[in-house]
Amino acid sequence: MARPIKCRKVEFLPETTKFIPYKNGKAKEIVLKVEELEAMRLKDIENLTQQECADLMGISRQTFQNIIDNARKKVAIALTKGYGINIKGGNYAYNHCKLKCKSCNKTYEIQFVKDKEICPKCHSIKVVCKNRNENCKKLCTK
Predict the structure, then answer these.
(1) What is the mean pLDDT of residues 90-101?
(2) Which of 2, 24, 61, 79 is the 20 to 30 A CA-CA neighbour of 102?
(3) What is the pTM of this model?
């Protein structure tokens, strides 16, 4: 049996989620996952070490390395081939977001991908975002 997918903790959600080349309004798009953007932000903008980045995202250093390698490759392909970049999806949990189960009334943070759909306490599917604020509104699945 496969190990459950652990959500990557993300502290930043972008206001702009699509970048389209100026001269090519109908360009192909590359999807950059939210956790891939966060990895690049932490490493390349905040100048943290790989271990510090991994710790902040709640993942191993090797998993962080795999995520940032994929992100950098996608951005390089988009820039060299003139593709658009669409930031969406992934296995992430926004650090400031909590979910609430309408069945058992429990409020919890997302630990695993399945927690976005099913309450870890009572296994109900009646799960909603508790504090659907401006920061996560566009990217929140609930």
Answers:
(1) 78
(2) 2
(3) 0.74
Task: Give the angle subtended at the CA of 88 by the CAs of 110 and 36, to the nearest 5°.
Answer: 75
* Amino acid at position 43, single letter: K
Q: Are 68 and 98 in contact (CB under 8 A)?
A: no
Q: How far apart are CA 71 and CA 95, in angstroms?
A: 20
Tokens 């390698």 belong to residue: 69
CA dist 24 and 5 (Å) reads 37
Per-residue pLDDT tens for 24-56?
667 789 999 999 999 999 999 999 999 999 999
- Go through the domains of the chain in sequence order and give each one's CATH number: 8-92 (1.10.10), 96-142 (no CATH)
Tell how strand 127-129 and strand 99-101 pair up.
Answer: antiparallel
Find residue 87's DSSP bridge partners: 32
Q: Can you say whether the dihedral through the CA atoms of 44, 46, 51, 57 is positive or negative?
A: negative
Q: What is the gyration radius of the CA atoms in the chain, in angstroms?
A: 17
